[in-house]
Each structure stands twice: as C-alpha cells, then as structure tokens.
Amino acid sequence: MQRASTKHLIHWTRMGISQVQARRGRLSWSNGLSGMGQGQLALLATLLLAAGLFGGSSRYDAMQNVLMQPLAWLVAGFAIVLGGWRGAWRDLRAPLVLLLSLAVLTLLQLVPLGHDLWTSLPGRGPLADIASAIGSEGARPLSMVPSRTLNALSAMGIPLAALLLMGAIGRGAAYPLLVGIVVLAALNLVLAILQVASGYADATYFYAITNEGAPVGMFANRNHSAVFGALAMLVIAFLVTRRECRGFPGANVLLWSIYAAVFLTLLVNGSRAGMLTAGIALGATALLLLGSTDEGARDRSAGRARLVRYLPVAVILAFTAGLVALFLMADRLTAFQRMVDVNLLEDMRFQVLPVLNEMIGAYFPAGTGLGAFETVYRIHETPDLLGPRYLNMAHNDWLQWVIETGVVGIVLLLAFLVWLGQRLIQLAKRGRDFVVFGVAVIAILALASYFDYPLRTPIFQVIGVWLVCSLALLGRAEESRGQNVANAPA
Fold it and tell me: With the C-alpha atoms ordered 389, 395, 399, 401, is the resulting torsion angle positive or negative?
C-alpha cells in the first residue's frame, strides 16, 4: 500500500514537472520576457536605441553610420558570447547561413583580381579604357566601387546583430521583439508629432539630407517612415488579437491608441508607398479581428457573440473612413493628392526602369558590387533623366539587388524565398491568424521594396530580420509544445 502511494506520488510529480516544461515551451509574452536575462535585455535596449537614433538613413555617407555600425558589431559579438541559442538554432540557422553567405559574397567582391580577369568581366569596358589611358594595369576587385562595397560589408553587422540577438534570446524571442518594434514605432510617432507641432523646425530632424516639411520621425525618407508605420500597425493588430494580451491590463487600449495615432500621422506623411502598405495593414487588421475569438462569448447568446466579434472591425473601418473623408474635405490628404496629381508614368521611378534593365544586362552575371549602384548608374544615365534630382538608389530594390549581386544574389534570394514559403506552410498549422500576419509582413516589405529601398536603412534591417525570423519562431511554437506534451510520462 505504501509502495503504491510512493509510486503514485512520483508519477504525479513527474507529470507536474512535464506540464511546467510544456508551459515554458509555449511562445508567449510573459515567457519571452521572463526568460530574458539582464545581458539580453541590455543588448536589446542598446540595439533598439542605436537603430532609433542612428539608423534612419540609407545613405552611406550619413554621419550616424560612424556610431551605428560599430555598435551593431559590438551587439553581435556580445550576443555570441551570451550564446546558447537555446533551441533557436534549428529555426534560425537558414537565415544565418544566408546572411553569412551574403557577407562572404561581399568580401569576395573586394578581392583583387588580375588585370586580364578583371577586364574580362561584363561591363568593365569603360573602366578598362580609362586604366589603359593612364597606364594602370594593376589588380582590381570585382566591385566597380570598392569603397562603397567595403561600407556594405561593414553595414552587414546590423542585420547580423539583430539575428544573433534573436538567437541568444531563444525561441521566446518573437513576442518581446515584436513589442520592441512597437516601442520604436511609438518613438518615431512622438518625433513625427514634434516635427508637425514645431512647424517642421530643423532641430527636430536627425539627418541633413531629409524630406523637410514632412513628418518623417526618426527617418530621413518619408516613404521609409510611412512603411514603418504600416508595419507597426500590422504588428499592433497581431499583438492585440493574441490571448496573451489579456494578461497586461491596459495594453489593449494603449496599443490601439498607438495604432490610431500612427495611421493619422501616415495620412499627412505624403507617401504613396505608405498609403498602399497601410491598405495592406488595414486589410490584415480586419482579418485578424474577424479571426479572433472570445472564449467567453461561447457561453453567451449568438447575437452578443457576433457583436463582440465584429464591433472592433466596424469601429476601425468607420474611424478610417471618417479620417480619410475629413482630410479630403480639408484638402490635407497629401498622399492622396500626390496619387491624383502625379502621372505615375512620368514619375522618375518608372522613367528609369529601361535604364535599370539595361544595367542588369550589362553587368550580368557578375554584378557591379554591393553599394556600387549610385556611381555606376551615372555611366548609363540618359540626357532626359538629367536634372536637379539624382538617384542614390534604384527605387526598386528587387532590380538593384540583381544589378549589384548578379547570379549569386539571385540564387541567395531564391533560397530565401523558398525558406519563407516553408515558414508560411508551418504557420498554416497554427491557424489563419498567423498566416494572415506572415503574408501581410512579406507583402508590405515586398511591395515597399518594389517602389523604394526601405531595407537599405539600418532600422529596417533590424526590424526586417526580427519580423521575418519571428515567422519561423511562431511557426515552430506549436510543434515544440506538442513535443513537450508527447515527452510527458504516461
């Protein structure tokens, strides 16, 4: 009798331990935050602060890069020292390998090549003629602008720091880092409001070359600020519809307030890309709200359950329509005016497309070297495109990627897209909400990169890594929970 009681006690003790382990394996706000050590929190705060203060410009000559890039490498180094990766290696090894492969490609673009080999590369004819004219037949790297490619290699520490920090935090990193994105969005919002309230005073802008007279916040480019706002709206909608949000009193109201303020700022920003991506965020918000369920509503009447389910969607749609109508009547919706007044076919982004296609053909399959686009573009610039404005980027990051990296870059991009597709399939096992969030994240980044170059800015390199890699952690959460339960003693 006593032996039987002892056996039952051991059995229930083991069951209790396994249940605790299963709960710890679940991905949640509280588990993610409580599982972070002081070192991880310090690194997260450092990277967030550095990205917010110094990471809003894509220009290679921005003074802030002198601080941003070394800080990123320090964070990456300390993240390696913290180590462990606590189960995240399986989920994040593919993006880490791809990122390291890109770093190796960039490094190889800087390796000096013999004169004959260098001149045999496609598109090097004009430079080879200049070298012959001045009697210089020394070794040169694949990159046509080595100094810019060296800067691109130095900047590689930024996404690497974001990824290594995510790995150091572990599988519970997804929700804390999504909250970190909202924190950055709130800071960006505060600065944008300050810019508007001060009459767009010069002191409120971080960068010398910027869109003055627009609420750009921490960014130098209003398009980047607006797209960041759209991503923040999406992240907020996803967090609010998670069950874990109920454990934080007032979080719902605070997050929706930030959501509304970000959208209002986006309306006066004047970015067409921002309006398009905000449309994706609003559509995803409606789907997330429609897909969320209130467990308590199951026991209530069907009419009240439907009201609880659809009322938030109706409020958001009515709020959106009212704001748009108000701004239209007041003639203050800058982005809409630009859509109506500007002929898209006359936009420089579309005028330059034939030149970009010509550059792809001229330098394929070797590419020009990462970061070399601005200088190399001047070789191909046509007289009708000359003017007071100039291109420092292609305003189409998909095409610029191919121009700068060639066939190797295409292979890396295809491998990354295959990995993303696999992550979406995993998310489908968790439910529709996760798929909506994943597809919306990818759609916003892909669309914004077609019209602009947000991922060239350090802030986007940090949050882009966190968003995309969060899809992997969110997709694995259900699997890890199932494994923990399966390992429990019978």
Answer: positive
Q: Whole-angstrom Cα distance, residue 321 to residue 109?
A: 51
Residues 325-365 have pLDDT tens digits of 655 555 555 555 555 455 544 577 788 899 999 999 999 99
pTM (2 decimals)? Answer: 0.84
- Please give the structure tokens belonging to residue 224: 């980047």
Domain ranges of the chain: 27-479
Q: Give the up-direction half-sphere exposure of residue 124: CA atoms within 13 A in the CB hemisphere.
A: 23
Can you tell me the distance from the alpha carbon of 43 to that of 40, in angstroms, rounded to the nearest whole number?
5
Q: Give the closest residue to 108 by CA, choosing from 96, 120, 100, 97.
A: 100
Within a 10 A sphere around the Cβ of 378, how many other Cβ atoms? 9
CA distances to 126, 366, 460, 480 from 409, in Å: 24, 9, 20, 33
Of the pLDDT bands very low, low, confident and very high (cuts 50, 70, 90), residue 301 is very low
User: CA-to-CA distance for 21 and 1, rounded, in angstroms?
Assistant: 30
